[in-house]
Amino acid sequence: MMSFLVVHRISHTYFTEKTAVTALDNVSLSIEKGEFVSFLGPSGCGKTTLLSIIASLIRPTEGTVMLEGEKIHSMHPSVGYMLQQDYLFPWKTIEENILLGLTIMGINTQETRQQALDLLKRIGLKGTEHYYPNQLSGGMRQRAALVRTMATNPKILLLDEPFSALDYQTKLKLEELVWQTLKEFGKTALLVTHDIGEAIAMSDRIFLFSAKPGRLVRTFLVPSELRQLSPFHARQHPAFSDLFQFLWKELDSLEALK
Q1: 47 neighbors 27 (Cβ within 8 angstroms)
Q2: Which of 143, 197, 244, 255 is the most exposed place for a label (fewest CB within 10 A)?
Q3: Which phi and psi (to 5°) does residue 119 adopt?
Q4: What is the mean pLDDT of residues 5-11?
Q5: 60-105 pLDDT per residue, tens
Q6: Could you read off the pLDDT of 155-207 as tens digits, one per residue?
Q7: What is the 3-state secondary structure of the chain?
Q8: What is the pLDDT of residue 254?
């Protein structure tokens, strides 16, 4: 049986008038339904390029992406994308912002609207519906961005360093919240991060990339005793620091090859 998401022999080169830079070289991987995976690697290893290809924002030079056995070649309602910046429109209220995807896709019904507002309450933003983004903290805005991403009920969520601009405590709280929410809804998620601890705490598997050009070097299965714990508790577990040290050395040796 075919995996939920299949990335098959993806290569990508950025061309300018004078140069050609290969960002990704022959990357193949698959992700199962309900899995949470991370892409980890040095800067310039093409992690975000690969995420953009899966989201159909970029067409790859070579290779295909299949979701549930079907080739993806244009923006797809089954794919939700959450970025480092929250990209909330400052002139729209939080309620208007979270309903935006529903409106664009033509599925802004009373039922979908209510589901989005219920999710807003569940993640601790009850009463902010009529606020504007500049009235909320960075962490609250990222939570609103998560609700906007999940409102359209995507099958897979692409998370491009969504916590990296936040202070450490807010980041840990948000990791916890996102992990709980995605598990509860049985979502499949793919996180791009530079943070080894975050990758271990949140993921079932970690894909390790080398840079220039980006190649998939190794895949790590996070030990089951960590996978069963929430990110905050996983960080406290003795197995966490062993895996952290191991991945740190692997990343360090990849950095040395750059």
Answers
A1: no
A2: 255
A3: -65, -40
A4: 96
A5: 999 999 999 988 877 777 899 888 888 899 999 999 999 998 888 8
A6: 999 999 988 888 999 889 989 989 999 998 899 999 999 899 999 999 999 99
A7: CCCCEEEEEEEEEEECCCCEEEEEEEEEEEECCCCEEEEECCCCCCHHHHHHHHCCCCCCCEEEEEECCEECCCCCCCEEEECCCCCCCCCCCHHHHHCHHHHHCCCCCHHHHHHHHHHHHHCCCCCCCCCCHHHCCHHHHHHHHHHHHHHCCCCEEEEECCCCCCCHHHHHHHHHHHHHHHHHCCCEEEEEECCHHHHHHHCCEEEEEECCCEEEEEEEECCHHHHCCCHHHHCCCHHHHHHHHHHHHHHHHHHHHC
A8: 83
Residue located via tokens 């998401």:
5
- Amino acid (one-letter) located at 168: Y
- Token pair, residue 27, equals 């990357």
